[in-house]
Design a protein that fits this description.
Two copies of one chain form a homodimer. By secondary structure, the first copy, chain A, is an alpha+beta fold. Chain A has helices at 18-27, 63-68, 113-127, 131-134, 140-144, and strands at residues 14-15, 30-37, 40-51, 54-58, 75-87, 95-105, 108-109, 148-152, 155-161, 180-188, 192-193. Chain A is globular and about 65 Å long. Chains A and B meet through strand 2, strand 3, helix 2, strand 5 and strand 6 of A and strand 2, strand 3, helix 2, strand 5 and strand 6 of B.
Chain lengths: 227, 227
């Protein structure tokens, strides 16, 4: 734990347990990558995957920036899952329920072809298990045009905010005001085939929704949530 | 437009039109705020609201950091809405459909009580219209304990990625591989009352779901999406 990952506000919500970190990272697939560009911070979204205690980031959106940025420049990778809006009796106690992981470090810009493939497979398996084996394998040229970053989960923290508002047991609890949570979830809609798709090609099984029970779906993006 | 907001990759997806910027900002309610802390970037999620060409950020999560950070320190505020996973015929052409707004600038830490109230009302109205009038008004003490940032939308850009994969008209279009999009949406579940809620208090009308038709719901967090 470093000064930076010390949980300053509401430390009771914080965690440094590795399994909590993994759980949040595994529930999302788009992170926000922060780095310094031209003397100021820049935050870009990108997709990622986790393998053990390593995070692989797809550098597409940020690739020019990343190449332009100094090697060995520090970054902050933040993954946030918004679970609900907390409606309190007082304006002051309103909040958002969320799970958030922050990872600090100096990412490695992968150059080795094997490393890049391992990173891309991790990202692909994370977002849509089965696609790596199903879709056409990357060519050498395509691989060269793809930026992949590797970041160790050495310096990280997790913060989770959940449950009802906490103004029910004070004087505000007597107010004639409804309080509770409106849960939010990310769901997938029915797949939309490419209008250019050749006839006679069905949606493969690995892209079908496996159901809504936690663990039953091959789609992590569904994120069945914490309840 | 500055060098920083010039859209370098896939400029055809980019936009500098103000109404596009507003539309993306209005569809979300949690942003990622990037700033420099202890010599490196730090990215934290926080809620926000827009009023005209001004963004108000709730500084709760970042308040200690923000107070510690230099006044007149530059930030980057990024709002990302993930609309779907794009499944292509080749691994290389896989992507994510999204809308993303990036705002650069030096935020103002509000100190005037009237300014703070205006900012908080904007955030409250943005997330849950009607709550500001319904819930208990902030006390002077609560207001003093709340951090609100104001950031002008002077330097900003928007990027939108949508539609099917683009490898249908090349040689990969002949492959026996399904291609298309799995749309993702954020939906609200049924409200969950605080277990400590006093009896006899019904969910107020302004918190009820107004329906699924775009424009019919008072809940912007529902984000009916682009289709």
């Amino acid at each position: 734990m470093t000064e930076r990952t010390r949980l300053r506000r509401l430390p009771e919500q914080g965690s440094h347990r590795r399994e909590d970190l993994h759980a949040v990272l595994d529930a999302g697939f788009v992170c926000h990558l922060g780095m310094e560009v031209e003397g100021g911070p820049m935050v870009v979204p990108t997709s990622y995957g986790r393998s053990g205690d390593v995070l692989y980031l797809h550098g597409s959106v940020a690739s020019r920036t990343l190449r332009a940025a100094k090697r060995s420049a520090p970054v902050c990778v933040t993954v946030t899952l918004v679970d609900g809006v907390v409606l309190a009796r007082s304006v002051f106690n309103h909040s958002v329920n969320y799970r958030c992981a922050m990872v600090f470090g100096v990412p490695e810009l992968l150059t080795d072809e094997g490393d890049k493939l391992a990173g891309l497979k991790t990202i692909s398996d994370h977002i849509a298990p089965g696609q790596w084996e199903y879709a056409r394998f990357p060519s050498g040229k395509e691989l060269a045009a793809t930026t992949v970053l590797r970041l160790a989960l050495d310096e990280a923290s997790v913060k989770v905010s959940e449950g009802p508002p906490d103004d029910g047991d004070g004087p505000d609890g007597e107010l004639e005001v409804w309080a509770g949570e409106i849960p939010l979830r990310t769901v997938r809609l029915d797949p939309v085939a490419d209008p250019d798709l050749r006839g006679g090609i069905d949606l493969p099984d690995h892209l079908r929704d496996g159901g809504t029970a936690p663990g039953a779906t091959p789609w992590r993006v569904l994120d069945p949530g914490r309840r």
